[in-house]
Amino acid sequence: MNALADPAMKAFAGTPLSDAAEWDAYVAAHPQATPFHSRAWCEAITRATGHRCHLVTARDARGGLTGLLPLHHIRSPLFGQALVGSGFAVGGGILADDRAVAATLASGAAEMARALGVPSVELRGGPLPEGEGWMRDEGVYAGFARDLAGDDDAELLAIPRKQRAEVRKARASALTVTIGRDDAERDDHYRVYATSVRNLGTPVFPKSLFDAVLDAFGEGADILTVRDGGRPIASVLSLYWRGVVMPYWGGGLADARRLRANELMYFALMSHARARQCIAFDFGRSKVGTGPCYYKKNWGFEPQPLAYARWLAPGRRARDTNPNSAKYRMQVDLWKRLPLWAANRIGPLIARGLG
């Protein structure tokens, strides 16, 4: 019997050693693997949020691994349930040797959702499935990535003129930059990030999520913080993956824009990443037509359309976690006015369910 016709499905809170080694080896060898396929990411999400991870795998007739799909079972009283590949990620999805294996994994994901009584599966990368119950989400997000230049001078020239002038002013200012992973850096980053997302009307993720990712990735993740007289005003937690730096969770206080702290932060990160032998800068995804989208274009990054896939059980509706949705407009406006202590207390309970 062809083993591909019967994908294996496993759930874990802690992965058996044999599975761990096999998972790590497959991701390490696959050219399309992202950090969000890695066991480090998936176990960090489970550890920080409690969302169980289900691993769908496919094997050849000899039992060799030919594909995998990690799915976090996101549960929320506000947003409902979904199997998400991968939780809290901007990528992930199916990782397979070929299209036939990818189709098998997609069928396994839908089968798992039916078995668990979960109404939808959300895939944020990889080959997109087709067939019964599957649909594409297109035109919402764009990705931004480009190669790093050879040195700081060349990097400046790669930035469009108007933004280049802002970067030069930021570099000439009295702002300073620190880079690290210790408790003090983590506390400063979370304080800045939590304030930033509260000001945008968005619940903040639990600090345990950032700690878990930093711990899981080790030297493959760090925090860069811009300071004004020692006070942190902008900060970003970045991942490093196969020569690519990914500024992943970042934000700034109200003073950051006036002081051009974000300009210094991202340019300093480019320089830091180059020193780490990175060759590319992945600015992440943004919703098309939003301020962050235009900001990244101002840096000389060209938007690349992103398409995601979603499976829905018959008669069910997709969950809505978009903070720009009209249904959340009143809540967003209210959230912006919350005291920071209250937003930081309540926010993680809500944000855990976004996935």
Automatic annotation (TrEMBL):
Superkingdom to which the source organism belongs: Bacteria
BioF2-like acetyltransferase domain: residues covered: 162-297
Coiled-coil region(s): none
InterPro entries given in the database record: Acyl_CoA_acyltransferase (IPR016181), BioF2-like_GNAT_dom (IPR038740), PEP-CTERM_FemAB-rel (IPR017469), PG_Glycine_Bridge_Synth (IPR050644)
NCBIfam families listed in its UniProt record: pepcterm_femAB
Protein name: BioF2-like acetyltransferase domain-containing protein
Organism from which the protein derives: Sphingopyxis alaskensis (strain DSM 13593 / LMG 18877 / RB2256) (Sphingomonas alaskensis)
